[in-house]
Design a protein that fits this description.
Radius of gyration: 19 Å
Shape: globular
Strand order of the largest sheet: 1-4
Helix content: over 70%
Strand content: under 5%
Number of strands: 4
Number of helices: 13
Order of helices and strands: HHHHHEHEEHHHHEHHH
Distance between the termini: 32 Å
Amino acid sequence: MQTTFSAVARERLRQFGPALILIAVFAALATAAPGLLRWRAINGLLMDNAPLLLIIVGLTLPVLLGCLDLSVAAVASFSAVCGAILSHSLGSWAGPVVVAGAAVAGGVQGWLIGRLQIPSFVMTLGALGIFAGLALFISKANMVGIRPGLAFFDVLSARTGGMPNAFLIVLAIAAVLSAVLRFTPFGRDVYAFGQSELASYISGVRRDLVRTVAFAISSACAALGGMMMLSQTLFANATVANGLLLPALVGVVVGGTAISGGIGGVAASLIGGLIAVLIRVGATISGLPPASQDVAFGIVILIAVALTTDRSKMGIVK
């Protein structure tokens, strides 16, 4: 009886805890800085943080499999640099081409993880180094820019009905992925894979395909996030998104998506992402140095992982 009660309480905490935390953090920040309640301030926050939220949305799929994609921030930086360079020859088509290329690269990572039996964090850590190095090489460690007037980037930086298009795109992609996970065989396979890879294999789930698609979506979202960053400033460099990896991981796990896989979803991660955004805002309002954000994110991710990890799937912790 006690075990059942604990399981129910844990599930309720996972379902409703992130939303309550989001409300509490926002209320505390609004009390400390009333200007945050102004629509202009909220609008600016959504615009500035749309790339981070999109990375979080995409990263959710590998985490639901029980995997990690540590390359997302490097992919975003590399994509922003590639988008700027290719825009001089391809124009607006540079954005879609780069996003499609990132999806292929992410899919290859997912496929190799299964084929070579390499842990996902090792594979994507190696990819992080590759993309970061390539971004430095092709940019020559300098800023690269795009000219104004390119339709693809203008759409990303514009507003519709007073709302930033970038944030509306995040909501649209999150809604599509949520529907895919909830109503399609692929979505059921993702959750089955995350609950037990061996059991999913026995039941006929094509593990390599599921993993490949999940990592392709994660990389594509990261690349589009890089395009959003490029559209906002018209400039990019090799490290433009490097600071987004830790808050992206925090957003996923704080939202209740278990790092052990099989539990959570895109909507939950989006709520967690908004919490991560407010943590960054709170650190700024408090006048704390930028390094304090990483300290806060480090503490939060340790607590969140401890609370959401399903230890029944784990053998010996190494």
